[in-house]
Here is the input.
Amino acid sequence: MAEINQSTHSFPNIELYNTLSHQKEHFKTVVPGKVGMYLCGPTVYKPSHIGHMVGPVIFDTIKRHLVYSGWDVTWVVNITDVDDKLITESKNRGMSMAALAEEMTTDYLDNLSALGVDGIDTMPKATDHIEGIIQFIAGLVEKDFAYPADGDVYFDVAKDKDYGKLTNRTLEKTQGEGGATADRKRSAADFALWKKAKSGEPSWESPWGPGRPGWHIECSAMSEALLGSHFDIHGGGLDLVFPHHENEIAQSESLHDCPMATYWMHNGLMQAAGAAGKVGGRPRDSSDTLDDLAATKISKSTGAEPFRELLTRHRPEAIKLLLLSTHYRSPIHFGEEPLGESARALEAFERLFSRYERLCGNSYYTLSARNRRDGNAAISDFHGRAGEHVTALRNRFLEAMDDDFNTAIAVATLFDFVRFINKFIDSEGLEKKADHDFETLNGLMLLMRELTSTLGLFLTPPAEVSTGADGKLLDSLMQLIIELRSRARQAKDFATADLIRDTLNEAEIQLEDRADGTDWSIK
RNA sequence: GGCGCCGUAGCCAAGUGGCUAAGGCAGCGGAUUGCAAAUCCGCCAUCGUCGGUUCGACUCCGACCGGCGCCUCCA
Here is the structure.
């Protein structure tokens, strides 16, 4: 990788929405040229569902765009592998907490991998950071922001003068009974940093006796260990704003006397569309079944299906395109219908890629495009109208991404780009003439590759439908059928030709006639 | 009750105080095709309702109606 001189390198102006200030802000890093990002990962006690994938996909794209724009980005996603829910679930399943955590972590990683989320630099586990967590809590106790109580340790919200600043709430307005441990807390809003172990529960030794970390503390401790006490971006789902992120801020800023993160970014939540099919929908009442509900949050409590099961019905690329077609802060309308539409939209790209491969012999997926946005090198190769159009298009794409990572607009420019390239191939007659100069087409496709890569789209070719011995057999049969049909067509026996095509169509095999031959594909 | 978000075409979904209100899916018309498919061209919205601010608002403010999230585990 080329070394960039950070002192002279100029970075684009990026705006991002900060939950803390409720507005877009100019992006300025703590350390020039470097970005530290922390995304709250899963508590690994059940298989991950689609909701768990939103953050990783969004932040993967954000990282790609920042790296493309010249920053040196470190991205951390934690794994919370110790928690009440893990203890309960592992008991139910008669296995150790560690074994359960390992199984679910693997599931999570497999899902990320299927989606091409590969930019995560470190995935720390809470149980690997118990020592740091204990020191963190001890520091808070020492500064009198926390107090031990009968083997537990609680954060004393009353001592934190700006508690509630992330979610604009004051202690008076905060409801809550304080839960089962209310009698040990000074205030109902106090939350556990350390929980005393009951017999048979996994535990670690601590100054307050054997126990385990409370929920929020692992993120404070691990982000500090890996990114420092003040890093740039902290993200997560909107449902984590309170109490999780509010409490992280309380812990970290009380201990360190500096902002925990400059920017707090929160992605919208998945909405499940019911049979009604609309996002707006009608109110819940007792007669509604789950299917009748118009739009409700997808979560464990609504029985979201494991992501790996979703993958048996839908291609990861279609899921990813759907996620990126909505702005990250908006709720995403999710379901079989939207996924189907997304898959159909995807085909426009993939048909162009195969068209390109047919013409030039190059696989789109192995094209090696520029991975830095510096200068206008990408478009200097084009001349005249194509050049102007492509310049405008690239600018629209980059401006959208610079403006709070507006992937919806970025994706829209890509659709325009597909149309432009198809038109270019048509108008230049590239399909018809044998002897051709494909330089401009190659340039256009390289730019497409550059832009889709920064979104994290089309990283790997679609799975081949026909592989192995069966695939070979199918392929040779199809070649034979196509040859026979071709003879029928030459003999003007269109009844036979159409019979073949229609019958194949019923078997979900699609034929496409072109001037120089016939393609087949499985629908 | 407190905090916050949303309501744009048949469906999904960007966006802007005034210039053609992106893009996708579906639909319709055309070019192309033996016919299809694919591709290309064209068509398809006045922005929940009512007031206000303004020379001008879909975009700002208010009210109302409808929907959603958080305040409890949650990505």
